Structures
1.
Amino acid sequence: MIKHTSHIRVRYAETDQMHMAYYARYLDYFEVARTEMLRAKGMPYRSFEEEGYLLPVLEAHVNYLQSARYDDELRIETTLDFSGGAVLRIEYNITREGQSIATGYTRHAFIRASSGKPCRPPKRFLEAIGQH
Amino acid sequence: MIKHTSHIRVRYAETDQMHMAYYARYLDYFEVARTEMLRAKGMPYRSFEEEGYLLPVLEAHVNYLQSARYDDELRIETTLDFSGGAVLRIEYNITREGQSIATGYTRHAFIRASSGKPCRPPKRFLEAIGQH
Amino acid sequence: MIKHTSHIRVRYAETDQMHMAYYARYLDYFEVARTEMLRAKGMPYRSFEEEGYLLPVLEAHVNYLQSARYDDELRIETTLDFSGGAVLRIEYNITREGQSIATGYTRHAFIRASSGKPCRPPKRFLEAIGQH
Amino acid sequence: MIKHTSHIRVRYAETDQMHMAYYARYLDYFEVARTEMLRAKGMPYRSFEEEGYLLPVLEAHVNYLQSARYDDELRIETTLDFSGGAVLRIEYNITREGQSIATGYTRHAFIRASSGKPCRPPKRFLEAIGQH
């Protein structure tokens, strides 16, 4: 299990006429958070694709608790959980000044780009999460 | 319970470098589908906001089964379920040529824009779903 | 020179807190309009990429005249102009009930995907625009 | 005339199947850059809206010179030019490791939210750009 904390600022482009971040944008925020987590752990997602792996999303879930507003600075706590196989689960907790804004998770599969088939994670990933 | 079927075509803007519709875009598709369902049932969402109601999303969920590709024509079956109170649940089934691409749901609350408080749905909504 | 007319409805996802379609979304609308024009003329953009051509954008311009609002039905008149070489220019005029909302243009180059180099348009394109 | 430099990292959400940042996303980047410039100069855009001003875009232009790729770190140099009246012009130069990726500009009008009419900029803005 690995953890990481990211920060993001709500862009005007991400607001809607309800004066809050549009609900689909939270999935963009989740992506930024997991990208930064992977980079911080020495395995940028870009390098996975360069090595022939893809990590498509199998499932995504968001609970919306409070509105995120334009220009808000959000904190995202990300937790990656891997228990073997090809699938990993990432949990997200978005807060603003200590108050919970949204929680959620995504599930991803390691896929070999050449075959489109699920596969074991690259060795580098297993080392980074301490399961080599 | 009411049902509706919508059609959507995947835009280039919605693809990512994995050559499929980016995972957050499915929530945009869900929104288009529920907007069209409400309009088809004689209660366009726009009119709710004009009458002082908002319908923010409480929860969203997507299961990704197959990739949607650029220019694909997708069919979205939408089912709205309301069992009283302020909350409604909408289910979505996205298919392409009979094959399931994604399923999911959203939960929404009727909110009075002036107070930000949950409220009973407008009478027009209750009539449309046969619960007046 | 070829012409085409498309229709588009403003999605909630495309609004911002100024209660209008966000300014970058007009470039998405332009893309939908030119995609539909190419399909209507028997040369879907998808088939260009399948045949090894890309059509990246060199330049984009938008003049914003009136706000487009949520759920508005917009009409987009698209005009493609090609005067030889690798570059084509497409002009757009977005209207709502006869009133001009925005105008603009994009310039694109035909590129061979394998080399990344500009190239002559495919024969099918030249035939469609009457320049074979 | 005021200047500012911002940094941005290309998100996966912003790529398209041509393996580059989608052309409309550059307008999102421009917005992030001008937002950060205004904040750095002590006049966050958020505060303009809170004081009853809007700054809608009149015109936008982008020249695409090189592709921006997923995870690229981009530098955006922003220059604001104001020569009186209600209109201001902002120029953008996006680079990656010293190489120019895109240039462009936007033109905006100060509008009073209550009337929708163009107006003189707030005093705070004139002070910040040294024209009080």
2.
Amino acid sequence: MKEGRLYFASDYMEGAHPNIIDRLCETNYIHTGGYGLDEITDSAIRRIREACGCPEAEVKLLVGGTQTNAIVIRSLLRSYQGVIAADSGHIAIHEAGAIELGGHKVICLPNKSGKISAAQVEECIRAYEQDDNREHIVMPGMVYISQPTEYGTLYSLAELIALSRVCRSHDIPLYMDGARLAYALASEENDIDLPDYAKLCDVFYIGGTKCGALFGEAVVLPDPARIPHFFSIIKQNGGLLAKGRILGIQFDELFKDELYLRIGKKAVRYAVRITEALREKGYPVFMDSPTNQIFIIVEDDKLEHLREKVEYSYIEKYDDTHTVIRFCTSWATRKEDVDDLIGLFEG
Amino acid sequence: MKEGRLYFASDYMEGAHPNIIDRLCETNYIHTGGYGLDEITDSAIRRIREACGCPEAEVKLLVGGTQTNAIVIRSLLRSYQGVIAADSGHIAIHEAGAIELGGHKVICLPNKSGKISAAQVEECIRAYEQDDNREHIVMPGMVYISQPTEYGTLYSLAELIALSRVCRSHDIPLYMDGARLAYALASEENDIDLPDYAKLCDVFYIGGTKCGALFGEAVVLPDPARIPHFFSIIKQNGGLLAKGRILGIQFDELFKDELYLRIGKKAVRYAVRITEALREKGYPVFMDSPTNQIFIIVEDDKLEHLREKVEYSYIEKYDDTHTVIRFCTSWATRKEDVDDLIGLFEG
Amino acid sequence: MKEGRLYFASDYMEGAHPNIIDRLCETNYIHTGGYGLDEITDSAIRRIREACGCPEAEVKLLVGGTQTNAIVIRSLLRSYQGVIAADSGHIAIHEAGAIELGGHKVICLPNKSGKISAAQVEECIRAYEQDDNREHIVMPGMVYISQPTEYGTLYSLAELIALSRVCRSHDIPLYMDGARLAYALASEENDIDLPDYAKLCDVFYIGGTKCGALFGEAVVLPDPARIPHFFSIIKQNGGLLAKGRILGIQFDELFKDELYLRIGKKAVRYAVRITEALREKGYPVFMDSPTNQIFIIVEDDKLEHLREKVEYSYIEKYDDTHTVIRFCTSWATRKEDVDDLIGLFEG
Amino acid sequence: MKEGRLYFASDYMEGAHPNIIDRLCETNYIHTGGYGLDEITDSAIRRIREACGCPEAEVKLLVGGTQTNAIVIRSLLRSYQGVIAADSGHIAIHEAGAIELGGHKVICLPNKSGKISAAQVEECIRAYEQDDNREHIVMPGMVYISQPTEYGTLYSLAELIALSRVCRSHDIPLYMDGARLAYALASEENDIDLPDYAKLCDVFYIGGTKCGALFGEAVVLPDPARIPHFFSIIKQNGGLLAKGRILGIQFDELFKDELYLRIGKKAVRYAVRITEALREKGYPVFMDSPTNQIFIIVEDDKLEHLREKVEYSYIEKYDDTHTVIRFCTSWATRKEDVDDLIGLFEG
């Protein structure tokens, strides 16, 4: 970390929202039960259930996103089934084969702005069902989506309803990866609330790591009988934290006084501001992302200059002379940094 | 947590040593790279290498003990191999089948005070090698020990040298689970230092969760080429923390100014005090444990009274009228609580 | 194979019963569907269903015993469950870790003459259920027995009823490995018929490889819904034969005119004759085995002489001067060989 | 099977070449060791080694193709690696997820006439190596090809040399699935002999099931140290046949007096004849296949008529009014059936 340098590479480059740090300090000497069997975790779970409008839901707090995806997916699938996902999905690319390690194929569908549609899912399942050789083929056994997607885009409520309907008509679960859910909930374009997810998804997780926590992802199972012996499964997969309350503390804070939403709102506001300013200055946006990620097309000539001043993520080559890069905002982004970032770009 | 109640159930019932909490606060707004690729983690690794006297070692910081055991063991074994362990070993009993989930048998040898001997290991490997049907049998592919053991007992340097020799003569790795290693290092009976482990074990981990950290275990591979692509393996197994620096912070603190050793010393001093006091009062010790766990035999009549005043761990029935229970001390144990605990037992 | 040498090492040292060979010849040029979807396999399945008295049963013909055990067990267990077995069970020792490769622990109970009792199983499940840490422990999820056992002994009907009752009271399946089932059915001591197995077991297999076939094991699931998508599971595990009719042919013959039973009867009759003759001559029987395996204790001095004349299986050292060896009879055993074998032993 | 009906659906619809059946009959009463440790299997292995020009090769006889692919691939890959294959490859589509069950991703490249090129493989590996996030991505760890491909097409020697060169330059094994290898060796277009495969591939298998055997695939490892403990791995995966000699008998016959080649030649000759006749009659060939599979485009109107007379394989819809179907020839195809099949198509 250098004085004067700007940091927009991702949303997990700092510690945690100060409320979480304060609570860690306050509770440090309290004795509690281990493995998430403590009052603080109970309180966090209550808050999450309430926010999701499903007081009966099973809620489990896990440590990280890949871990959560791997555990949930191998819990829901039978050995002969695979999981349908966008070819840009995190599980399809950036989890080092965690899903396959668990024994399952990721059945990739071509993404459109990071999303897959109900029609694509329907077609994929139909093709399987109508194939005479289907017993020699991996059976589509669940659907995985991310909200926001890996490109920062959003499913609309109508799209989610359609996906949910297809899944239920074929009796397979719909699972949503909400690693950056705070930014979806906070987006102006968003028309889906937590209770909608609880109604339309069979399992989803509310991301903590990228939304202001030190780490942590809250898995919500609206039907608490969906994954029997989930505790043992988490343990067996190395996902159980001895001092589970550390997760409880974080989610209890995130869901107190709508902190989760407030974190999202601030980051999205800054992201919108950056996007608009760059657009005005003539920098084309690669993907119209209404959340906390900004995908922008930059001339290669300007990259070196940028690299000296700001940390960003390289995404891909756009053409022979341009590159797509990404900026992320987060709970830790400061107004002056946003201004400085915008200032780096000439009109 | 109730006023006046005593808490000795385990060593992971509070937060973290205050130095760790302070450092978390101090560093909260610093930007760093993710996934353990940051300066704080670098510093922690340097300190651990130095403490172990092996500047070339690969050191990886993982989140929890079961996770660490599962990942290390599946990385070292080939599919047709199993891991030799004491039948009281953590991997044999209390990890919900994590080793088998990874595809491997735990080959159990009868423990003696929680330990297995070089002679037992030699005999086990010999039996395999001399069996005409050995190609139909799981091959012993590594040895797992815990230091201290699950009963709080210690391997001596001579015992560890003997185990290491057997393993090397058969060209299989020796792996040590040091979930509570601070308490081994701090014990009066201990004659093994960190550099000895680095010389005699092929892989071992230095436990953080039970030794003053919020969570975290530091895997040390004295030969850095022992597990190629270890980073990807950790990622694939859901063990990679996005904000890896949180682990770095904790181990950097634990290995600054010998904090790890000091935490161990205090806990062991209190444990010895409790053991001696109870012994004096006529309570027989179940297992002669020189570390931070105290296994004591109590008349069943007295259990209810105890349960009201103190949290302890139930271990097993001793006979029809007695029960073995366990007290643990830790960095968080206070002198007055030790006195109060001793006071609960009548002379 | 040498002129004048005797072969009693095992029951899979020759080809197949001549009826099977004849049928292979006869049907060689017939065109049929693949993967067991053919009329011959249909006929075999009908015969097996009829013999088992359950016309609705799902019957699948697999290639070998380890394959069958591995596939059935991983199909029935959830990831956090293990399979209870005798410590002498084939899956516990001689399958090179196939069950663990599938992700599951073999929970071993001490055998008594190769058997485990309902009381042991009950105790094992109770211990799990009453353990406060059970969520950290592998859950007993099914029971595996062999009939006859690896020592050639037999469960009685009463014993099987008791085992079945325990399993059903805990809602876990009872699975029987019938690799040598023909010899159980044919034994004078036997009081269990195929329909009893179909009533009392949840899954079992009727062994072909060791009972007169070239290879093949017939899995019977009295409740056809017990393992959904079993065909795909078999395919996925590499157990599906393209020319599935080869299995159909073999079982169609084995279950025509009670051939299976007749093969068993002949082999058992010879085994009994050998046992009685050797007993008369003063050779102590190691295990009272009423099927086609003869376990006998021989002075080490005599082993070399025997080895020159006859192939047998080494089982284990009995004491410093004696060894336990095994003879097996089969469909291929000839009367003159039995006489010659007996003649090798002095009175 | 109906009188007058034609059977061209696949090459595994009958028993085995009569030489194999004869040998099964002749050897039926011979006693041999189990698990492939017998003189007949030894002889088969010697013949295969000789045919491949590598007297040191490890040769293992397995039962089926999916089994062989699954076992070889999981033996060669490390957990964090995947296998590169054509998107039309058998392992990518028709093995019910057997590769993923073993823990590995199939990294699909777009096929061209069923084939992938050295350039595609090079590009795939480069992309991995140059990706900054490669440690979060599945590493390409081997290359899988089929010869002939699933579309009956052939790699040329030049193409195979190029693939081998790329693999060796990146130190990853090249594995060839030769399920129908007899038909490749017999094709007029073929310029690769068995010794070439042994030089250019790191592992390959010579298919029996689809080339005249009842079942069986012979895995050849030119470097016998390539897969240590391969016997145990095969056992563990349920691929070990107790009466292993049944495999030995089949391959001993197939490699006696070039039977394997002769079987291929006859089938290919008939296939060429069918192709040429249909082409002359104006039926467009879908894929130019020089082996024993014929892919032909037929008007949907004519399908019903065909279906009554001949069994074929449905491949895919070509357009709104046409369908691609497949005929296969084999050792069992008779000249008169070929004539009759041709006669079904009007000029």
